[in-house]
């Protein structure tokens, strides 16, 4: 794979490899989002041609809001399957994905619940037996 991507051995390897990996990951993410994104059920993957397929109207609609995806309308991406096995496990499944706003709201709700419990006198950290640190098995 590297011979195809970097055919010139005189290139400084590390910066070029890092740049190429970043580009491949970005391109993979564009295709992955097309194939697995919300409301994108009309997109498919042609294993033989290694291209994203859908009707022209869907392409036009998608490209109007996702300019970077336009490059894959007529070009293949032969590393999609290999990169999916590497990167897909790090991507949140849409129904479980959280935005920062969702996370902040969740933390606020937990903080309010904790404050309410403490105000009501419910000390949920209380245990039946008071044990000193010396008596604990650590």
From TrEMBL:
Pfam families per record: Myb_DNA-bind_3
Occurrences of domain Myb/SANT-like (ranges): 12-62
Biological classification of the source: Eukaryota, Viridiplantae, Streptophyta, Embryophyta, Tracheophyta
InterPro entries: Myb/SANT-like_dom (IPR024752)
Protein name: Myb/SANT-like domain-containing protein
């Amino acid at each position: 794979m590297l011979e195809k991507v970097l055919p010139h051995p005189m290139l400084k390897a590390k910066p070029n490899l890092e740049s190429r990996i970043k580009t491949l990951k970005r391109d993979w993410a564009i295709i992955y989002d097309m194939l697995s994104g919300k409301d994108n059920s009309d997109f498919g993957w042609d294993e033989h041609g290694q291209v994203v397929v859908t009707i022209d109207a869907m392409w036009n609609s998608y490209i109007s809001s996702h300019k970077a995806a336009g490059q894959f309308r007529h070009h293949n991406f032969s590393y999609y399957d290999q990169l999916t096995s590497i990167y897909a496990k790090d991507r949140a499944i849409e129904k479980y994905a959280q935005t920062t706003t969702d996370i902040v709201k969740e933390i606020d709700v937990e903080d309010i619940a904790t404050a309410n419990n403490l105000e009501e006198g419910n000390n949920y950290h209380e245990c039946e037996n008071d044990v000193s640190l010396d008596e604990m098995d650590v």
